[in-house]
Amino acid sequence: MAESHVTSGRRDKIVFILLILLVVLFLLLDVFFGSVSFTPSDIIHALFHTTKSPLNTIIFDFRIPKALTAFTVGIALSLSGLQMQTLFRNPMAGPDVLGISSGASLGVAFVILGFSANISTGGLTGLGNWILIAASWAGAGAVMIFIMSISSRIREIMTILIIGIMLSSGISAIVTIMQYFSAESMLKSYVIWTMGSLGNLTSSQLNVLFICVSAGILLSIASAKMLNAISLGENYAKSIGLNMKLSRVVIFVSTSILTGSVTAFCGPIGFIGIAVPHISRILLRTSDHRILIPGTILTGGIIMLISDIISQLPGSESVLPVNSVTSLIGIPVVIWVILRNRKYSGVF
Amino acid sequence: MTRDSEQILSINSLRIGYKSGKDENLLLPPLTASARRGEMIALIGKNGIGKSTLLRTIAGLQPSLGGDIIYSGKSIREYSRTDLARTIGYISTEIVKVSNMRVYDLVALGRFPHTNWFGKIDRNNHDIITDAIEKTGMSTLSWRFISELSDGERQKATIARILAQDTGILVMDEPTAFLDIGSKFEILHLMHLLSQKSGKTIIFSTHDLNVAMCQADKIWLIVDNRLLEGAPEDLMLQGEFDHLFDSSTMKYNSEDGTYSFITENRGEINVSGEGIMLHYTKKALNRAGFSVSEGEMLPFLKLPSGKCSRWQLIYGSSLMEFESLYDFITCISSSNPATI
């Protein structure tokens, strides 16, 4: 037994080292690829010379912030997906499927379409960023509370998924009505926002995003032990001494912050939240969230960096909306999970 | 009162049930019972009478509607959730389905109330986990995924988990349901060892009266809207089991502590013989609806003995012989009782 204990620990270590190497690799590749192409020596030159060359500007003001945004977004969405899957004991749970992202969108729509005339998301600064992000949290949080209150009464997994999908549809109907009555310029900035973008963040927005996602990561690390207990089911979790209310609050705040912050600045980015936790479970073969959380952080970052690289269409000058790339990567994983677990039981 | 110090659990006028809004749905009248250290207590009662609710209330998973539960002299209300989890462990009938969870991980979760905020498993915790796995005979399977275990193995892993929790009281809701007969006795044997050797108090619900009669030190019997407690034999001598199940179709045999169906009485037969042959012949006759009695005018059944290896039925001047009980029962069941 001791042997398997050790070998499993060793396997985890190897996986983590590989994941960290992949993070570094894809961060570099993401900086390297873009609509303006340059050679590796250009990058090295730019990194060590602080002169304001155009190359320098591209790398420091666009490529590096975008790569860091991609990495952060990947972490945030994947972590909130992992927590939701365990909290609802549902392999198909995720910020987008349960309507949490839609809730955040509604908050954003109120800000962009409702109140701030003539302001695009890119033009927001200082307090405006916090208003946008707070509206997004509120939207995400409201939906999360709704789903949590339903799931405490209805244990049927499919019912909750269907309610989540209905909520998403209802919210997009409301947003469509708001779009119908809004001015053309606001409409345009909202539509661009919905396509999802990693590259339009101002440096102050990037700071806000980092702060919020860091807070979300800390909360999710603090919830690791709780999540382990919750995976046994509510009865057993309580019987081994879990404070269910406190855990719900911690997970609720954590997922709302993570989903809301990302959605506020980068738009609704789908399928990362559902798919990545499954990928990290396959890689690490464990149910222990003290291992799954760091694993999901690294995997989520990597998958989002890959999505960003693909969306740049290396070698061409055009760019795809990152939202469609993540869907194309995530959907096969989700379908595979459904086919593998036709009974929707015991997946995580 | 030295014996009182051993008393680990007492429930006083406990009212169990569910609350929805202002309405209280009380399942049973107030219940009173107690348990001592190292006792194995079987909870028996009809389906739906509130056994699971009682166990869940005792384990602190569900608030009571009144009355009190006292653990080692302290009311359940004075325990924090963590303290309670260190005092009482709980196993439900719910099957834990978590993929990628190894037996070791499951058992490690038993240490939940003993570890720090991050659930760190240090050397000491690891030793306790390993010990719990060893005690349940799961050492060779400790690195298996629980989704790959058989029902019996999974139940053993669940018990290892509750052992790692290191509580004085173990509450188990139908621990042997769904198990095949071999696994059932393995689990019962394990429970017996835990109460005898480790001094754990085990409170378990069961439908298997035989198991309860043989294994339990004490029975909590919920019948006719009250909870009776006592040694199995006490309750039997008081005739309390007679009404446990629907008495229009089932009948309780107090000699061997079993239940049998009440069948239409089709006639009486006088049987001569002794020992195990008599016992099983009677059993077969009872099943077919015939009672055994002594009467001159009754058909007379002579059991195989000595040279004769056949059952001989003598009625009036006719004699019938049968190779086996099966043949005999088939014959008398198919014929009109009056003709025998």
Short summary of the structure?
Chain A has 348 residues and is mainly alpha-helical. Chain A has 14 helices and no strands. Chain A has a single domain, classed as ABC transporter involved in vitamin B12 uptake, BtuC (Orthogonal Bundle).
How would you explain this protein's 3D organization?
The complex is a heterodimer of chains A (348) and B (340). Chain A contains 14 helices and no strands. Mean pLDDT of chain A is 87; it is low at 344-348. Chain A has helices at residues 2-32, 40-48, 54-87, 100-115, 127-153, 157-180, 184-194, 203-222, 224-230, 234-239, 244-266, 272-284, 289-311, 322-340. The longest helix of chain A is centred in the first third of the chain and has 34 residues, at 54-87. Chain A has 348 residues and is mainly α. Chain A has one domain (2-340): ABC transporter involved in vitamin B12 uptake, BtuC. With 340 residues, chain B is α/β, with parallel strands linked by helices. Chain B has eleven helices and 19 strands. Chain B has helices spanning 2-6, 51-58, 81-87, 103-109, 123-135, 151-164, 181-197, 209-215, 232-237, 275-288, 325-334; strands spanning 7-15, 17-20, 23-26, 31-36, 40-45, 66-71, 74-75, 88-91, 169-173, 201-205, 218-223, 226-230, 250-253, 258-261, 267-272, 290-292, 300-302, 311-315, 318-322. In chain B, helix 5 crosses helix 6 and helix 6 (151-164) runs parallel beside helix 7. Chain B is elongated. The N and C termini of chain B lie far apart (65 Å). The model of chain B is unreliable at 1-5 (pLDDT under 50). The A-B interface holds A 1, 4-5, 8, 221-222, 224-225, 228-229, 231-233, 235-236, 238-243, 281, 285-288, 290, 345-348 and B 56, 59-61, 81-82, 84-86, 88-90, 92, 94, 96-102, 104-106, 109-110, 112-113, 115, 117-119, 130, 133, 139-140, 142-143, 147, 165.
